[in-house]
Amino acid sequence: MQSLLQSRFLTMTLAGLQVFLQVMLVMPTKAWSQDLDSSPPVIESRAVEQGFKGETQVFTATVTDDRGVASVFLHYRLDGESVYQDRRMEQLGSTSIYSTSLSTDSDVDAIQYYIEATDLAENRTLQGFAFDPIERQLVDRAVPAADVPAVEAPAPGMSTGRKVLYGVLGLVVVGALASAAGGSSSSGGSSEPGVDVTIVVEQLP
Question: Could you report the per-residue pLDDT of 25-50, keeping only the tens digit for each?
Fold first, then answer.
């Protein structure tokens, strides 16, 4: 009888221990699965298709994540290069904007790049790829055209049109005076002393 009771007690103890172990094993698994971060960060960036040679090129991207962003990198290579270089993009203050800049020489024609963002759970997002990068063309800044020399203003004085006008008016006045003088001499038959006439011509505005 005592042996039977001991056997039942042992059986119940083992069963309880089994249930306890199962609960202890399952609960952390459920809690861990509920806390698992499987969502990668989101990258929003508008590619600038063209820049100027010899000038600093700025690259920016807006990166967000529901748990937090760990790092953002720009992977780039200049035209003619096969290996990408890495440059960390720094967060601007407390915003979601990340930025970095590259200095270029006047002989660089293009920059190929892609952006990589990683969150705190090491989920990763790419914009562009190493095998299919985004490209920014670099062109020469337009050289300003040479200044065209200003046309010299004509020397102050009377224009040709005004000279013609004044000449015509002078002829008309002189002709009228001559006609008047001729008429007077023919009608009276006597010679009278000549009359001095002064003609004043004002320049038109």
Answer: 545 554 444 578 889 999 999 999 99
pLDDT digits (tens, 9 = 90+) for 36-90: 888 999 999 999 999 999 999 999 999 999 999 999 999 999 998 999 999 999 9
Burial 91-100 (b: 16+ CB within 10 A, else e): eeeeeebbeb
The owner of tokens 């090129």 is 57
The full length of the chain comes to: 205
pTM of the model: 0.56
Tokens matching residue 129: 């790829």
The CA–CA distances, whole Å, from 25 to 17, 21, 31, 32 equal: 12, 6, 11, 11
Residues 6+ apart with CB under 8 A from 78: 104, 108, 110, 111, 112
Q: Across the strands, what pairs with 159? A: none
**Cα atoms in the 13 Å half-sphere on the side-chain side of 98:** 22
What distance in Å separates the CA atoms of residue 102 and residue 55, rounded to the nearest whole number? 9
